[in-house]
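In response to the reviewer comment on reproducibility (Comment 2.3), we provide here a single inverse folding case reported in full, input and output, so that an independent group could reproduce the run without further information from us. The structure tokens appear first.
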């Protein structure tokens, strides 16, 4: 069904002769394979988009939308990788033969950024959570991860800090290193040596520069 996938593959364009370009787009190739090998991702996204996609065929409201859920998911991926706005993402894809192929619109019309905004907002936060779970299960099944180690995101808290000038950052660095050296000397004096730490001298230099 067109609403979920666009299975009409078209011929590829002439690949770039620049190694740096091919290397840059190689990550899109890897991501594309992951999406194809994990059909659950598109299925989960399609549940949120199937109603709104029917309303998005401006040429013929009675037909399915010309954009599939797979295409919408891939455009969102392009925005995440590029770190661009909705408008810039649409322009970037529209002007790139490779990205048109990646999102599978090929030579067809590109959606407007307002349509992209509406479709992206229709994907709920719990849907992204389910996508992460699907990717985790797929990685475990393919033995890419084993669950013995996990990297967790840290939580950032708002706090007051001094203005980060070059001199103040250098002073903070020296002060922190001096504290660590003192801690090491308490454990094993021979490891960190016995040279004097020039805290007062460095602070005077910092104050003079500031």
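Designed residues, in position order:
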């Amino acid at each position: 069904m067109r609403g979920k996938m666009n299975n009409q593959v078209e011929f590829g364009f002439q690949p770039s002769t620049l190694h740096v370009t091919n290397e840059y787009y190689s990550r899109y190739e890897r991501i594309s394979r992951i999406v194809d090998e994990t059909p659950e991702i598109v299925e989960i996204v399609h549940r949120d988009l199937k109603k709104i996609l029917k309303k998005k065929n401006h040429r013929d409201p009675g037909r399915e939308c010309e954009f599939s859920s797979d295409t919408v998911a891939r455009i969102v991926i392009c925005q995440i990788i590029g770190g661009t706005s909705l408008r810039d993402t649409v322009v970037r894809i529209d002007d790139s033969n490779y990205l048109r192929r990646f999102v599978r619109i090929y030579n067809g019309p590109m959606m407007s950024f307002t349509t992209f905004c509406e479709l992206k907002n229709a994907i709920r936060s719990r849907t992204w959570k389910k996508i992460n779970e699907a990717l985790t299960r797929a990685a475990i099944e393919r033995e890419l991860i084993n669950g013995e180690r996990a990297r967790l995101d840290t939580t950032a808290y708002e706090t007051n800090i001094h203005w980060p000038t070059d001199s103040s950052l250098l002073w903070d660095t020296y002060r922190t290193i001096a504290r660590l050296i003192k801690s090491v000397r308490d454990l094993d004096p021979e490891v960190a040596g016995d040279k004097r730490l020039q805290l007062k001298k460095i602070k005077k230099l910092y104050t003079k520069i500031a």
